[in-house]
Specification:
Blueprint lengths: L1 E6 L7 H5 L7 E5 L2 E10 L4 E9 L1 H6 L5 H4 L3 H4 L8 H10 L1 H4 L7 H4 L3 E11 L3 H9 L5 E8 L9 E13 L1 H16 L9 H10 L9 H8 L4 H15 L23 H15 L4 E5 L5 H8 L5 E6 L2 H11 L6 H4 L2 E5 L14 E5 L10 H12 L3 E7 L26 H15 L1 E8 L10 E8 H5 L1
Parallel strand pairs: 8-9, 8-11, 9-10, 11-12
Antiparallel strand pairs: 1-4, 1-5, 2-3, 3-4, 5-7, 6-7, 12-14, 13-14
């Protein structure tokens, strides 16, 4: 199976730096299903092409019993065409051979690695269960110009029609890392099959590869479901995590074929806008020591780490596994010592007083309160506003009135399956007023995201300031 990557960025031979493969050398790599080769059919200043050729050993594929148990003992493994067309086999080879490029790392040309460049991708034989329309649906929203030519079953017998294979060409201006991660995810999605057993580890793999683009993709449910081999519990977990990344309503995996609203393609995502609003409020109140209470997998923590205005960061979450994922995603062990000393992760709960959280400038509860059972909300208020008692508390939560603007969200459903409730603007203001009266704070409420004249903004943000600090 063959994949070629071409660029006309000058000097085009810098593609060798980005792929970590020298254009003047032919290289060979052993992979689990055979041998991968990297060669450069053309390497000039104005145009350079790198080719990844995967030679699959179908006998070893069967002996290893990769794929489903039924296929592992089938004669079809020896005679069918699956080992010779772009599929999950090629995706795995892509991950091994171009691992650094997939991660966007290039010490020699890091600035180029972070820059969108003109790219052309060619896959001469690609299985696509959904035909050229599906290829256009999946790659088009990512910025690609898609040319998908169906391959006839047999050119000598045109009446037999087309096979489910395509000759696929993509053209666009993207970061090379984005292009490769998209291929890594979408190759097995288009084929709708994987040659290996899918476990819960595949969820983490999908989030790592697709976290920067999959959350905003209009067909993310279809992609997630197919990538995870239609295992519903894995797909639901992945969709839940992607919803937290992009903050669009979660949908059932099987609804992927339905249409999507154009607002879902907005940039930046609502999650990005919310983080930007929180950072702006932290700067406005001169909060340099900040607690992210209910930090989840570290989306806000990453933003805080990149803002040198914040000198000390504490992430708190009730789930140890989630904290482990946050540490992994933030790559804490790889951070320079000075950066690593800025951040601490703690196991704790928003509804219990915790002496470790006292004395900080600000506590942030970003999309947290709606995950708390209503009877426990007074405990949360006592723990945060009474015990920790920071100078500033920032709370964001969904505005349930805005839900009607998402046609894909069923009537009466919450945006996330774990939400215990979602407040109207009036209900949120009433809760804020009660907290202020009980604990000596003053509150200001701001919209986050596009403001609809009838239903308001999708997210509501409250800034609580301790009255003693306000009057100083």
């Amino acid at each position: 199976m063959l994949l070629t990557v071409t660029t006309t960025h000058r000097p085009a031979t810098d593609l060798g730096y980005l792929l970590h493969k020298h254009p003047d050398r032919a290289q060979r790599f052993d992979v689990t299903t055979g041998v991968a080769h990297v060669v450069y059919p053309e390497a000039a200043e104005d145009r350079c092409t790198a080719a990844l050729l995967l030679e699959v050993d179908p006998i070893e594929l069967v002996r290893g019993r990769r794929g489903s148990a039924a296929e592992g003992f089938s004669l079809g493994q020896y005679v069918n065409d699956r080992p010779y067309v772009a599929s999950s086999l090629l995706a795995v080879a892509l991950g091994k051979v171009f691992g650094s490029a997939l991660k966007g790392r290039c010490e020699a040309r890091q600035e180029l690695a972070a820059t969108p460049i003109p790219l052309e991708i060619h896959l001469p034989v690609l299985p696509c269960r959904g035909g050229s329309p599906l290829a256009e649906r999946l790659f088009g929203p990512l910025g690609w110009s898609v040319t998908a030519r169906p391959i006839p079953l047999d050119p000598a017998f045109p009446d037999w029609g087309d096979s489910h294979y395509l000759d696929l060409r993509l053209a666009g201006t993207l970061r090379l890392a984005d292009a490769l991660t998209q291929l890594y995810v979408l190759l097995p999605v288009l084929d709708d099959a994987k040659h290996y057993w899918v476990s819960v580890d595949e969820v983490d793999k999908l989030i790592r590869a697709g976290g920067d683009w999959l959350g905003a993709h209009p067909d993310r449910e279809l992609i997630t479901t197919r990538y995870l081999a239609h295992q519903r519990r894995f797909a639901e977990e992945a969709l839940s995590r992607l919803t937290e990344l992009d903050d669009r309503p979660a949908e059932a995996p099987e609804s992927a074929s339905a249409g999507h609203d154009a607002a879902d393609d907005r940039l930046p995502s609502l999650a990005d806008q919310r983080r930007a609003a929180i950072l702006a409020e932290l700067r406005a109140c001169d909060a340099r020591r900040v607690v992210d209470l209910g930090c989840g997998e570290g989306n806000l923590l990453r933003a805080l780490l990149t803002d040198q205005f914040v000198t000390e960061i504490v992430g708190v979450d009730a789930a140890p596994r989630t904290l482990a994922v946050a540490a992994s995603r933030l790559r804490l062990e790889q951070l320079p010592e000075r950066q690593r000393d800025r951040i601490t992760l703690l196991h704790g709960s928003a509804t219990y007083a915790d002496s470790r959280l006292t004395g900080y400038d600000a506590v942030v509860l970003s999309e947290v309160v709606e995950h708390v059972d209503p009877p426990r909300l007074p405990d949360l208020a006592s723990a945060v506003f009474g015990a920790a008692r920071p100078r500033t508390v920032i709370v964001t939560t969904p505005n349930v009135e805005y839900n009607v603007r998402w046609p894909t969200l069923p009537s009466g459903a919450t945006r996330h399956p774990d939400h215990r409730f979602e407040w109207t603007r009036t209900e949120f203001a009433d809760w804020a007023e009660q907290v202020c009266a009980a604990h000596g704070y003053a509150a200001r409420i701001e919209p986050v995201g596009p403001v609809d004249p009838e239903v308001g903004a999708p997210t509501q943000l409250a800034v609580f300031s301790r009255e003693s600090a306000v009057t100083r």
